[in-house]
């Protein structure tokens, strides 16, 4: 199992993205190598699914750029929040009763022009 320190080191390697990945279910998303790492190495499909579940037509039209942050407490509860890029403008706050995400915090950017596109801040 990867330690939080090793994960942080691995995440530093994601600068830009060589590949774009697509997943069609349950909600179609396109994502970068860094987000694929989160899904594959950290079993965080649930996290990208949670973010994708908010992407209704109205939500995407109102918030074409979103900053999502998962914050995990020591008791494995968490909160998933989203802003419109301005930390003062919270648009989502979802309590997570339990999760096994190994980091205390992760940020994922979402851009929704023609499709839902997820990427890490370092891949911008």
Molecular structure report:
- It is a single chain.
- With 124 residues, this protein is of the alpha+beta class.
- It has a single domain, classed as Nuclear Transport Factor 2, Chain: A, CATH 3.10.450.
- The chain has 4 helices and 7 strands, in the order αββαααβββββ.
- The protein has helices at residues 4-12, 33-42, 45-53, 57-62; strands at residues 20-23, 29-32, 65-72, 78-83, 90-96, 105-112, 116-119.
- It has a 7-stranded mixed β-sheet.
- α2 (33-42) crosses α3.
- The longest helix is centred in the N-terminal third of the chain and has 10 residues, at 33-42.
- The N and C termini lie far apart (28 Å).
Topology:
Elements (H helix, E strand, L loop, with lengths): L3 H9 L7 E4 L5 E4 H10 L2 H9 L3 H6 L2 E8 L5 E6 L6 E7 L8 E8 L3 E4 L5
Characteristic terms for this protein:
alpha+beta, globular
């Amino acid at each position: 199992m990867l330690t939080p320190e090793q994960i942080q080191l691995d995440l530093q390697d994601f600068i830009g993205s060589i590949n774009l990945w697509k997943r069609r279910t349950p909600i179609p998303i396109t994502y970068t190598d860094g987000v694929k790492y989160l899904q594959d190495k950290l079993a965080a499909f649930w996290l990208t699914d949670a973010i994708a579940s908010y992407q209704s037509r109205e939500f995407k039209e109102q918030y074409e750029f979103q900053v999502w942050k998962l914050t995990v407490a020591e008791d494995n509860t968490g909160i998933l929040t989203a802003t419109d890029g301005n930390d003062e403008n919270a648009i989502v706050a979802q309590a997570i009763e339990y999760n096994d995400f190994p980091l205390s915090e992760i940020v994922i950017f979402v851009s929704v022009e023609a499709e839902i596109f997820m990427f890490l801040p370092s891949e911008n």
